[in-house]
Amino acid sequence: MSTVPAKHKSVSYAKWGYIFLIPFFVTFVLFTVIPLGRTFYYSLFENRLEGLTQINQFIGFDNFIKLFTETKFFTYLGNTMTMWLIGFIPQLIVSLALAVWFTDRNMRLRFQPFFKTVIYMPNLIMASAFSMMFFVLFSDNGPVNSMMMSLGMEQFSFLRTVSGSRGLIALMNFLMWFGNTTIVLMAAVMGIDQSLFEAADIDGASGWKTFTRVTVPMIKPVLSYMLITSLIGGLQLFDVPQILTGANGNPVGVNRTVIMQLNSIIGASKNYGEGGALSVVLFVITAVLGMMVYYSLNSNEREAKKLAREGQKKVAEMKKGQGVKA
Amino acid sequence: MSRMNNLTRVLITAAAMLLVGALAFYLLAEVMPPFNVAATLTIDAANVNKSAQKDLDKGSDAATAFKRQLNMVRAGRSASGVSMTDLYVSIFGQEAVKCPDCDTRLPEGTDITQKQTCPKCGKTDIDLKADFQKEIDAVKATAVKENTEGTYGITYAYQHRDLNVAKAMVNGLVAEVEANILAQADKDFPETARGTDILGEAAQQANLGPRTWLVTALMMIFTGMIGYMILTRDVKNVAFRRLMAYTLLIILSFLCIVFFYIMVINTTRTHGDIQRGISLLPGRAFMDNYRSLMSMSELPVWRGMLNSLLVSSCVAILSTYFSVLTAYAIHAYDFRFRKFAFSFILLVMMIPTQVSALGFIEMMRDWNLMDNFLPLILPSIASPAVFFFMKQFMDSTLPLAIVEAARIDGSSEFGTFNRIVIHIMKPAIAVQAIFTFVSSWNNYFTPALLLKDAQMKTLPVLIAQLRSADYTKFNMGNVYMMICLSIAPVIIVYLCLSKFIIAGVAVGGVKE
Fold this sequence. Notes:
The structure holds two protein chains of two kinds.
Chain A: H1 6-43, E1 45-50, E2 53-58, H2 62-69, H3 73-103, H4 112-120, H5 127-138, H6 143-150, H7 162-190, H8 194-202, H9 207-218, H10 220-235, H11 239-244, H12 258-269, H13 272-325
Antiparallel strand pairs in A: 1-2
Helix pairs in contact in A: 1-13, 2-13, 3-7, 3-10, 4-7, 9-13, 10-13, 12-13
Chain B: H1 6-31, H2 37-57, H3 60-77, H4 84-92, H5 128-149, H6 154-170, H7 176-188, H8 198-205, H9 209-231, H10 238-266, H11 271-276, H12 286-294, H13 301-332, H14 338-348, H15 357-366, H16 374-377, H17 384-397, H18 400-408, H19 413-424, H20 426-442, H21 445-450, H22 459-468, H23 476-508
């Protein structure tokens, strides 16, 4: 069959490529592009009721100016980012440590399947159910407070204090995502050429040195990919604060995220100009971040090769350096 | 760290020990002052007084109302209690026990629970109790409502009053009557039931001083050990690292499991038991909780589960099938826009659904598709993330020679796809079917905006309803039961297929 001229053959089948792409693109245009266009359209108009007539007036970019100056958009964006960050930093540290330990041959950790199963589990839990559970467990009269009081501590109003409520949201985000991150990072670490670790070991590099000089540089592409996707996910933070702290993000709105603002516009206030502007801003932010993911996906291989070369060079240098000292 | 003499090491370790010790002591002794019972009670009493004083200062009207409400709450706690007449008199004064018509005072000691006859104008059936009860109910309702909505003022005083009572009892100032009030209150307001435990705690806490020192000392020793090991480069020691790894893993696993364990246990306990605190042993109310949850018409749980199941299954099937089809189009055929199509799908992979939600919901309203599952199911035909996974899997497992062979055997293009490609892609389809099923099962944002009819709601929307409604009116056993039912299917499937799923995560790496 290899004698068949491939070029001629593939041309005659090209139409099937288009045909098979139809469902995807039709769906995409119908359910994403058109709504997106409609959303953008809304952002340029003022909708209000004057008496009983609906007024739709073109006002250009006034909605954006209003969004930035009259609403608490930046506060909510700040809230969103703060909540993401206080969950993400411990998540990254813990996941890196676990990924390294799980894959370390010298350590030979036992019960790995059990631990992996347990730490990944929260990722599959319905966020709304998980939040509702935390809401009842940590409410002022909930079991956690009862337990604290019976241990001789003072009652702590988790959901009415800034530190308490944000701490809970961060804890939930951490619990829901660190297992996932650990497993992805583990796969990345296992993908590193084992001879690099062996070389480092023979050269007497400490665990920490091996980690900073071999492991981290080698999994850098995965780390940056994770950072950006987690940031995009963080921007979409909605279920947890919405259910844990209510639609207003109590106390006094410190837990209100951008998507919660959008949700209240679509569901309740119907101020489509503002909602449209908010959507466009979110779109621009995620589009920029999405581009970064795209390039990191595309350049993964190239970079990995480059890093492998550099890593080997560094190891060689280390070897040389130690040889001189000895 | 490499060139550090022993003295520096010792000094750094000692400094870290002191710092941690001081921090621990500060946290235990100052931030969590209950280790000193007298201080706690005084602080709480002072807080209540302060908050009450603030409200009182706000103005005479508000102050009077507040004072009265406070009294009424107190009365409310002993509603239907032993000495209603005493309470009535203590709140309204003896002069309030009078005939509503001619204002004649009834004799002292008149039982207000009985209907009275006025000695002067002869009016019969004077029902002071009914009026009293009405006011009590009103205050109860206010108290419960304020409690839920998180306002301060009366709620604050209401919750902390127990501590005042307890304080008074510690000092031996309050008589049996108040014990009765508390006992009755526990029945009427289970959420404050633990107030009565405060005396027992007080006795316990009297001996807590040494605990602060013990914990502080342990923390210091622990820091010292870690500091010593790090500074003497014992970190290289595998045994030490293993110890750290196991410690961390056990703590994390505990955190991952404990909340679910409490939840499952709480489904078997009664409302009152749950309010009293955490238990490690199951109760006997599982069937009762289940039955009462089923009897709630505003929460059609099984209907919600069926809806969720329907939507999620369709999403899993459509998204995997069409993603394989899309991936196959780009993988197997050479056409002009092939590269462009691939780049385009990768680029749009990260656009969140929320961004287009506004236009999407409006469009569905125009098309009359609100309260319909189609807008939840159909968009999943275009799932860029699933596509990307399929494409990667295809690159490594689907040789084009197979496709060519099928062509030679006379198979049509679509036939080849359905019979051969789908078959080869089965492992990838299974992994992605699970993930898309789960994410659709858990999806809250779009369904919450689309589904308004109770019979059409999916589980996450029903759960959110528990929160938004006046949640104190729910039996806690029901709430836990509902949460448990909605996550149980996913957990069970996960526990059966965990190895497979975790391998899928490791391979994919890409998940929302």
